[in-house]
Specification:
About 40% of the residues lie in helices and about 15% in strands. The protein is an alpha/beta fold. The longest helix is centred in the middle third of the chain and has 17 residues. Helix 1 packs across helix 5, helix 6 packs parallel to helix 9 and helix 7 crosses helix 8. It has two domains: about 120 residues, Response regulator (Rossmann fold, 3-Layer(aba) Sandwich), CATH 3.40.50.2300; about 120 residues, Rossmann fold, CATH 3.40.50.450. The chain is built from nine helices and ten strands.
Length: about 260
Amino acid sequence: MKPTTLKGLPQHVLFIDDEDGQLKLYSHLLSQQLTSRIQTTRFPTEALVLAGRKLFDAVVIDVTIDYNGSPFGGLELYKQLVGRYGTDSLIVYSKFITEELLKRYNYPFNFIETGDDAVGFARELARRIVELRKHQRCFVAMPFGKEHEPIWRVVSKAIKLASFEPLRIDRADFNTSITEHIFRELREAKLVIFVTAAQNPNVFYEAGFSHALGKEIITITDDYSKLPFDVRDRNAIAYGGNLKKLEKLLVSKLRRLA
């Protein structure tokens, strides 16, 4: 099988299946398709810890794992992880559940039916991971105005260099209320850039909502001393007003997240 390459990207996949033989087979076949580091676990609770420590490019979950007292525990695990990971990083699969049956749950799962062709499943899984990775977005929570445009240009460039899609809410098209749209975009985003310039209360609100979801947040400030103590986290960047320094530090941090 010819491997699929995501050029220039760190590729980390978390694979969760409580059947040891199936886990070994599928993860091995997937490793032949993707030039990726594939981490595996049979235990949903361990998966939650691993997925919280790192930001995997994709998390692949067997539907029929036993979790939270449900025979379809993989779906429950998916729902728990979607706040942190958004909609373009999670995939559930099953040999025993069809897409038609899954529709009864009325929830937008990314689903692949395994069938009896393990090699074909691995090929389709690799293709889906690559496709989803292309659409992973980074929500930029920052004040917008002419005085902040230089920061936006640097931040959006760094996000693109790290192969994410930058999203700023004032340039998005939507028909719902802006608050509702912001919440939806934050839920669906893979990560959030939090720019503290001007100490804008709306931006701090967006960052707080993202934190509640469990998002990976990178905080940007010109000076650490200007940050409230409760946002001086491990992913804070202080660039001292030097935009070239900001670009370098941000690209490096984005690429090291996984």
